[in-house]
């Protein structure tokens, strides 16, 4: 049996740099764009680690917005019900928040983030940062141009049990040289959508679609299944690969890959499926001295039910498996070791009051938000700075592009382009639907 290592002390030690942020005495003026599941979760965790006055909530769903405003009024010290908006620009203009959280569907991450930094706010934006590569380039340029702190919601960079594993096995050199890593997700395929119909009166579907290519409203797309729509997301590669590819990059100090290649597609979905994202993908990210493989399979059984989603690092002296719930280290010689996620629900019992809190992620998200606040104060780059988020996001987008084109892509990181492939470079930016205009690094 594995020797179990519980993380109460070890994780606190590993995460100590992230827990050192001292909140300002004056409440931060905070605005939220995207008041659904993870928007509320991020905001509630921020309220746990710093004095906050929520000065505005924005969403295209009036029912969701009203419910979020009532919840926040109950939670914040002032008891005030924050004003609500359907247009994020109006919220930014009227309320002038110092910090803005962006937790919209993926196709709406870019424009609000750029508008927020232009307004003078620091931003916590959810992953993947962008729908296409040029959006991500524009977001990095905007953060630098306006001198704002931007943290990406890649909270695994701040997750105690993962930091503990990094310290024990990678930083210490115990695992030995690592030249191969695997990232994977073995979750089931989403169900079909009902036939299109008129959107409910409380939902501004025109604005929901926004700059994306048009898709008629179908029940179940909103609020949680938009990830199964290619118009709004990049499938599980954009949703899940980005997290643990980012972890591998963090653990091994990797920058940009020099080559990306992928195969796959909708291999199991019926031909007439209205779920238009891939259900199978195999991608290789060539970092030169290190090869990283991504495997997505939405069908069949997972190789290990305990590691349906995660990463495995293969070292010269052992193998380290990582997931949102645990880590397991198997040495070539000696006893295996195991660690679990840090449960802080006794310290933060309100986590269980918010029905959709991912308890396993709560400690990491709080640490990530503390790091964000400390980075603002210290005028430094946060753990998941917008540029790091862009690299991890763009890798996933380039894998999808390679899969669609049926060929590998050689990436020129300095130029931000694919080498000698005009068709691939055309695919780095989608066409925006009028009246929205696609930003570029030169236009932010």
Written overview of the protein:
The chain has 444 residues and is an alpha/beta fold. It is built from 12 helices and 17 strands. An 11-stranded mixed β-sheet has the order 1-15-14-13-12-8-11-10-9-16-17. Strands 4-3-2-5-6-7 form a 6-stranded parallel β-sheet, with helices on both faces. Helix 6 (133-145) links the parallel strand 6 and strand 7. Helix 1 (8-15) crosses helix 7 and helix 6 (133-145) packs antiparallel against helix 11. The longest helix is centred in the C-terminal third of the chain and has 20 residues, at 359-378. It is globular and about 60 Å long. The N and C termini lie far apart (56 Å).
What is this entry, summarized?
The chain has 444 residues and is of the alpha/beta class.
What topology emerges from the helices and strands here?
Elements: E1 3-5, H1 8-15, E2 28-33, H2 37-49, E3 52-58, H3 62-75, E4 84-85, H4 88-95, E5 99-102, H5 110-118, E6 122-125, H6 133-145, E7 150-152, H7 160-171, E8 178-185, H8 205-209, H9 235-252, E9 259-265, E10 280-286, E11 291-297, E12 309-315, E13 318-323, E14 326-331, E15 337-340, H10 359-378, H11 386-405, E16 409-412, E17 417-418, H12 422-426
Parallel strand pairs: 1-15, 2-3, 2-5, 3-4, 5-6, 6-7, 8-11
Antiparallel strand pairs: 8-12, 9-10, 9-16, 10-11, 12-13, 13-14, 14-15, 16-17
